[in-house]
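User: Need the bound-state model for magnesium ion:
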Amino acid sequence: MTTALRQFVYANELSFLMEAHDALSASIAAKVGFKGLWASGLSISSTLGYRDTNEASWTELVDAVERIADASNLPVLVDGDSGFGNFNNARLVSHKLWRRGAAGVCLEDKGFPKMNSFVGDRHPLAEIKEFCGRLSAVKDTIPDREFVLVARLEALIAGRDLDEALVRADAYAEAGADAILIHSRKADADEILEFAQQWRNKKPVLIVPTKYYRTPTAQFRDAGISTIIWANHNMRASVSAMRDVCSQILEEESLVNIESEVAGLGEVFDLLRYAELSEAEAKYLPKSHAS
Ligand code: SPV
Ligand code: MG
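Assistant: Bound-state model below.
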């Protein structure tokens, strides 16, 4: 899985990672054909009922990631936030994530607790050398050299300029990052495309076009972007679907108009591979116990 993610990120063509936050969302993404997943901190914490400011513990993150990896059998890049502390926490969490099935981790250059990049204006950046220590510690700790370490730049989120982002990107690459994620919350992709042009793919670039979603994907392809992360859309799709079904059932006190609108139980059983269990029972259970 680590090799698969590495090839994904280093491929010449544009790659895509779909958000997953639990086993069900992961298996749906795999079933429709995505080849890699983003274990989103925002989405995982939201589904657990926590705010995306490190309210969820790192063990809760690791547990969620294990279910995502098991259910999808796909390479998973994990949103490791800022690493849950200093270099020591970052290497501990990353190592556990690797042990539990993650193919890579993305660490952002903020402190602990971090706040979701789209919330408020207080996004203090980590000091460059200290963050480099976090990256190097992760690199030195994980024995699988294929494990992908992504350094996420929050300079533009914090209101710093492109020059600062480029200085930081150079330092993070030097410290051992395999790839760079440049984040922006502007509605257009100008600063992302400018970054890509000046960075000249010294390391592959990942982006998260949640706010600049109107930019045609072709522009990112032309700019030599490595990977697009569709960062939270399974979680948000489930919010709208659950809101609608709850409202309708509450109002109509009936399932008559609902049944055709929701996934059939057959689809659920299919996603969870109930047929495989029947086959295994036929193979392993003594015949007298088979019924
Ligand atoms: C996440 O999906 O948790 C991310 C991306 O980190 S964002 O929410 O855009 O910061
Ligand atoms: Mg996040």
